[in-house]
Design goal:
The chain is an alpha+beta fold. The chain has one domain: Roll (Nuclear Transport Factor 2, Chain: A), CATH 3.10.450.50. About 30% of the residues lie in helices and about 30% in strands. The chain has five helices and seven strands; from the N terminus they run H-H-H-E-E-E-E-E-E-H-H-E. The strands form two sheets. The chain has a five-stranded antiparallel β-sheet with strand order 2-3-4-5-6. It has a two-stranded antiparallel sheet with strand order 1-7. Strand 2 and strand 3 form a beta hairpin. The radius of gyration is 17 Å and the shape is globular. This is DUF3828 domain-containing protein.
Length: about 170
């Protein structure tokens, strides 16, 4: 019988990419900054958020729900996975809107960590892609989204867009 080595035991105790996304979404839903949600981002993403003066904040309204569906390896990128989730958000008319959010997750020394997301907001339109590891691009995208976003959505987001705040 093979014995577990410390290295294999660490792998067995490391949360899966789907678990990391679930933990991140739960922490963000409960209050981002105060729940250390940012620790589930890659080291580079954490550094870029700090550099541009953003922090992880709640996404959507308090009634938003996330369902993490599946994870798939990225071809030719060892240690990288895409994790699919569905974001369900109540609309102002009482109906429910559903949005697919795909998370990029990478293996780091501390375990699986999130580096970005792609989100389809309107069917037939290209998805919004946010690379948490590219602070300049992220700052431009978030600044543009905050100006273009309807006031009721900005208010529900507490002035944040896609989980980050100044």
């Amino acid at each position: 019988m093979a014995q577990a080595t410390p290295e294999s035991a660490d792998v067995a105790n490391t949360p899966s990419p789907s678990d990391v996304v679930s933990q991140f979404l739960d922490r963000v839903r409960r209050g981002g900054e105060t729940t250390d949600a940012g620790q589930l981002l890659t080291q580079r993403a954490q550094a870029e958020l700090k550099r541009i003066g953003r922090t992880v904040q709640p996404i959507g309204t308090p009634d938003a729900r996330f369902d993490v569906r599946q994870a798939a390896a990225i071809p030719n990128e060892p240690g990288s996975m895409l994790v699919q989730s569905i974001w369900t958000e109540p609309n102002s008319d009482g109906s429910l809107g559903q949005y697919e959010v795909v998370w990029a997750v990478h293996r780091e020394q501390a375990g699986w960590r999130i580096s970005g997301l792609a989100m389809e907001m309107n069917p037939g339109q290209p998805p919004i892609v946010i690379d948490f590891e590219n602070g300049d691009e992220m700052a431009k995208l978030l600044a543009g989204s905050e100006q273009a976003e309807p006031a009721h959505v900005q208010q529900a987001n507490g002035g944040s867009v896609n989980g980050t705040q100044r």
